[in-house]
């Protein structure tokens, strides 16, 4: 039985199969080392060698480099996502506090105007009272003030009730969709936990207490308190007989009784129905304005406390920003640990191999960070330090780039603080909206804060260099050297025969001699190396053990040309002659070259 197998193992897909040789075809090398840029294939091969440089125990059962990298870094990437979300949420709250701060002056003015308006209404109402009813007016004023307090209390209980009902809706939603989805996300993030479905159920978020019973009780309590304050209207009585004795404590009476007594008193102020209606209208208006005044005073008190709350939130955001970079630094350290065996090997190497280097570093794309702000957030037409294109990018590069890329967490936080102290006011002056455009400015300020404290422009990346030049900037030929370095000198775990088709492709003869010959000689000690080449350096100077010379005959019509093979070592005169003929252009060409170089050849 004849079985055919591809040298590169592409048809060996069985669970026990394994390619019996590593084959570097010209197409494979060209794809990996294309002039268009570093392909994923070359990076994948480098990562494979890094993965295999670890012992099986160090791989922690990971099947490939990507899985091993995820095992090392996923924890820190998840922490980074969590802290970034926390920064976004805190930034939204800070923006709200900033907005409240800006309203202090306006609310103070509105409170003053409202007090003045109520005073005027009260004065106008007093003018409607006829002489002899001053005592009734004083009593009415007392009742009116008590009624206003009761209405405010009713309003507060109503607000609480609406909050309890909204909480009931939130609890139902959390149970139905929120908690199960959070659990599913946790299971996805930690798929390797090995926990059973029953064990995962323990992680389902539930409420500590019986919130359904509590919230129902809170709603009923609010309803009862509102009803207690409102009370029931008293039955009609004699117009001249007070419904509330003068000795009664008004603060203990329900609103309905007080309103009924106020209505009785209003009828006594004047016999003229029009005057009575005007008095009632002014009384109702005063009540409405007092309610509005209370709302304004509450908002003013809240706004006056915004500055202190903002400072606390900013401190929390600074801490979260630091934790983001703690996660980034830990990810960087984890990657460095992952590449440590190969980096240690290279640092101890000599010759060509020493030219290859690996490094793990943070990359801060100040260009992208600044461009987004210039194009999406700032009005560059306004005069200031960020007028025109590129000014913000230049400032960010100078003030933040170094800290972002090489600084410690403390240094990064310090650099950001200095940047904000120096430039925040200027950045805000380039806002496309004025603070008076509240809705637009509110949305813009939140987006601005998300950008300012965002870290999407910062990545952790490992870099490969050859002779001090990043692999992305190398010529295709030099990338080919890097690829051969991997296979010949670093891929220690692979002892299969290595088959290479024209390794000298895209390389000048000096590079072939300087960079590859020594590697091939060293590789021969641990694996069989088979190459197809037209380069004499790789045939002669690598001291090839066996040379196979292939010679194709005439190409017949409708068929393939016959191929004749001659094999032997360099000590064989026939093989030496064949090498000279094929690689050097024959003896005549070789001697002509010697004549031009004034070199004497011995027979």
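^ structure tokens above, recovered residues below v
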């Amino acid at each position: 039985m004849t079985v055919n197998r591809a040298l590169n193992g592409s048809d060996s897909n069985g669970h026990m199969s394994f390619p019996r040789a590593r084959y570097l075809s010209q197409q494979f090398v060209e794809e990996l080392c294309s002039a268009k840029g570093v392909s994923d294939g070359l990076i994948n091969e480098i990562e494979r060698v890094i993965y295999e440089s670890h012992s099986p125990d160090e791989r922690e059962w990971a099947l490939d480099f990507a899985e091993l990298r995820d095992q090392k870094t996923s924890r820190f990437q998840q922490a980074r996502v969590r802290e970034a979300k926390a920064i976004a949420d805190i930034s939204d709250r800070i923006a709200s506090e900033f907005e409240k701060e800006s309203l202090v002056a306006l609310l103070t003015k509105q409170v003053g105007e409202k007090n003045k308006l109520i005073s005027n209404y009260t004065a106008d109402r007093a003018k409607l009272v006829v002489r002899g009813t001053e005592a009734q007016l004083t009593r009415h004023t007392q009742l009116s003030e008590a009624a206003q307090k009761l209405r405010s209390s009713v309003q507060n209980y109503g607000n609480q009730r609406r909050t309890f009902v909204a909480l009931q809706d939130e609890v139902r939603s959390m149970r139905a969709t929120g908690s199960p989805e959070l659990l599913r996300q946790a299971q996805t993030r930690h798929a390797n936990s090995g926990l059973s479905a029953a064990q995962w159920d323990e992680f389902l978020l539930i409420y500590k207490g019986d919130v359904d019973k509590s919230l129902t009780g809170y709603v009923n309590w609010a309803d009862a308190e509102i009803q207690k304050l409102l009370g029931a209207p008293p039955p009609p009585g004699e117009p001249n007989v007070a419904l509330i004795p003068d000795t009664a404590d008004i603060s203990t009476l329900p609103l309905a009784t007080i309103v009924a007594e106020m209505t009785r008193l209003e009828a006594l102020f004047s016999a003229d129905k029009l005057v009575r209606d005007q008095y009632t209208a002014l009384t109702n208006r005063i009540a409405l304005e007092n309610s509005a005044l209370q709302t304004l005073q509450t908002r003013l008190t809240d706004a006056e406390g915004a500055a202190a709350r903002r400072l606390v939130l900013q401190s929390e955001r600074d801490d979260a920003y630091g934790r983001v970079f703690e996660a980034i630094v830990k990810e960087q350290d984890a990657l460095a640990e992952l590449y440590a065996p190969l980096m240690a090997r290279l640092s101890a190497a000599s010759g060509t191999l020493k030219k290859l280097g690996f490094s793990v570093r943070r990359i801060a794309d100040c260009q992208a960070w600044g461009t987004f702000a210039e194009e999406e957030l700032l009005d560059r037409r306004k005069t200031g330090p960020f007028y025109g294109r590129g000014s913000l990018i230049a400032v960010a590069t100078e003030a933040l780039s170094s800290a972002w890329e090489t600084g410690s967490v403390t240094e990064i936080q310090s650099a950001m603080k200095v940047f904000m102290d120096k430039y925040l006011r200027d950045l805000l002056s380039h806002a496309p909206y004025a603070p008076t455009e509240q809705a637009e400015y509110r949305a813009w300020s939140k987006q601005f804060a998300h950008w300012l404290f965002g870290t999407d422009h910062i990545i952790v990346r490992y870099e490969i260099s050859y002779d001090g030049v990043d692999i992305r900037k190398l010529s295709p030929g030099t990338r080919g050297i890097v690829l051969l370095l991997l296979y010949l000198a670093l891929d220690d775990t692979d002892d299969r025969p290595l088959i290479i088709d024209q390794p000298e492709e895209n390389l000048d003869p000096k590079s072939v001699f300087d960079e590859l010959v020594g590697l091939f000689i060293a590789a021969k000690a641990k694996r069989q190396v088979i190459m197809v080449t037209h380069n004499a350096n790789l045939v002669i100077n690598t001291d090839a053990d066996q040379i196979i010379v292939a010679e194709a005959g005439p190409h017949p019509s409708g068929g393939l040309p016959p191929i004749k093979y001659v094999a032997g070592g360099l000590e064989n005169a026939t093989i030496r002659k064949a090498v000279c003929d094929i690689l050097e252009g024959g003896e005549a060409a070789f001697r002509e070259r010697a004549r031009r170089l004034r070199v004497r050849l011995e027979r």
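The CA atoms of residues 242 and 248 lie 11 Å apart.
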